[in-house]
Amino acid sequence: MASKRERREHPPEPFLANSQEEAGHVADDGKKTRDEENFLDDVHDVHDVHTSPAPGATLLEAARAPDPAPEPPSAAASPELAAALALVNGALDNPATDPKDLFSEPVIQAIKVIRDARDKSLWLKLKARLQAAKPRGVNMTDIASATRPAGDREDGNVADALVALAQERAELFHDPAGACYATLKSPPHATYRIDTPGWGEWISYAHYSKTKTDTGLGRAASDQALRTSRTVIMGLAKNEGPERDAYLRAARSGEAYYLDLGDEDWRAVEITAAGWRIVTRPPVTFWRPSSMRPLPVPVAPGSGQHELLWRFVNVAPQDRYLALAWMLESWRPETPFPVLELVGMQGSAKSSSQERLRYVLDHNAVPLRAAPKSVEDLFVSAAGNWLTSYNNLSHLSGATQDAICSLATGGGYAGRTLYTNADETVFEAKRPVVINGITPIVTAQDLTDRVIHLECPPLERYIPERSLTAEFEASAPSILGGLLDLFSAAIAVLPSVKIARPPRMADFAHLGEALMISQAHPPGAFLKLYQDNRRDSIARGLEASPVAAAIRAMVDAQRPRDPTGRIFEGTMSKLLDDLADHRTIKNDAWPKSPRGLGDMIRRQKPALADIGIHVDILPRTREGIPVRIVHRHPE
User: Fold this and answer.
1) Residues 407-440 pLDDT 10s
2) Which residues contact 378 (CB under 8 A, 6 or more apart)?
3) Is the Cα torsion angle 162, 163, 169, 172 positive or negative in sign?
4) Are strands 451-455 and 339-343 parallel, antiparallel or unpaired?
5) What pTM does this model have?
6) Quick one: pLDDT at residue 89?
7) Residue ranges of the alpha helices (H) in 435-505?
8) Percentages helix, strand, coil for the chain, rounded to the nearest 5?
């Protein structure tokens, strides 16, 4: 039998009628009306239909063809059923019958009797004849509703059954942001977010299995029933279910961290200062988007080798503790995350290195994503992924860089809910982020302050990708085990770490210090690595900004210098004119107005101050916006 989709791709001929006007329930454009689609939906129980369409004919065409009345009921049929069949078929066979009389109260009652009969084919055949004979303006859905037997499982009843099934087999709850979840009561106690396809697949299969008959076939829930039940189940989860957190991949409870392995048994790794172990029922609740893939199962504690990672990930030896600290920090959901930026020439294995980092941190069906087209795309992707990973970037707009900054430290995005004017959809997330490109991508100073910038050195030789991938996947359990050993050792040292003047990403700096101290390095070793990397990132950000580069050129051109260090004093408009003479980077990013110049200077002020250039923007006067630039040697 043709599928429902296939049947919809071939609109049927008009009903048997003398004119298009008589067949008024057929749409002028040849598309099926709602009545027709309801009819097709009603016959999806193919194991209960005892007739088949003629070869080459659709089910609907066969139903509308001149059809003899159903065979007379057998002697075993009840007198009531026989009388009902005789009444309805007699009315249909009589050319003198007014079509409106077909739906009088006696006929409706007779149809009810026929629908109550165990032989469903009687109702299906009769329904096809009624569909063709009904007058214009009479809705077949209303007829079906008026004659529905008690207990017949139409969409509304199926939706009720789905809601009951969810309450029977799952614990419903919601998180503080209002997202709704269902945790199955039977092992392995999987958790589904109710507004995702994963929940729809589970509840559909559960309903099909529960309604199986002796033939081995069950009933399929329609899309309408699934939508209706989902709305009710979410309402139950939000209004009657408890509130608790649901986590993606990484979580913390008390002094322990948990990492979802993503396997069929819903196991997780528990990491504490005393060590780590695999547990079957973690005290936190994880849910899994459809793109999540299992992590490699780590080798036993103490037997892993994280050093194997560097055979497959191209990071310079002096930068490896920065990379390791970023990796471990990505498993701490309570802290702000630094952004990892991998940069290198073509063929330096940036993308494959990034993909393998993700394989052991947050394995995903699509480990490398293209650049987001909008801020909304960025947050929508982050809502269903733990680690946000973008590949081969050449440019990021200022708005996107601001959004990545917000995403890494915790933020959200709100937009109008589809098909509404009075509500908005909010995406809240805090995610570790990794990006790569041939040249530095991050230019906004607020994001530069949060970036770990690593240069991928040129490769000395190339190894066939297939053999390298096979070797990496074989080594991954040992690599992950080694990383877990490092994580446990670092959090054991972490409470004792003291930093007199911590940098902006203080949590990351403390973890990095704990990591290196746990590996027998002296205190302060990681902080020096991090500060040097941050200083280089700030310098790169200044070089990439046409306005910052022009201001630096203006400062260098002041010879001899004013004893007070004054470089410029005037209005923003005059500064824009003067900087044009010192412009070294010519691209579309150059400001076209004093206001644009002011916005760009405000972004670069902290970085300029780090190299001794102090820019003060004063309140507006009658002449314009005053600006003062002073140079002092940094301390």
Assistant:
1) 998 877 776 555 444 456 667 789 999 999 998 8
2) 372, 388, 400, 403, 404, 407, 413
3) positive
4) parallel
5) 0.72
6) 84
7) 445-448, 465-493
8) 45, 15, 40
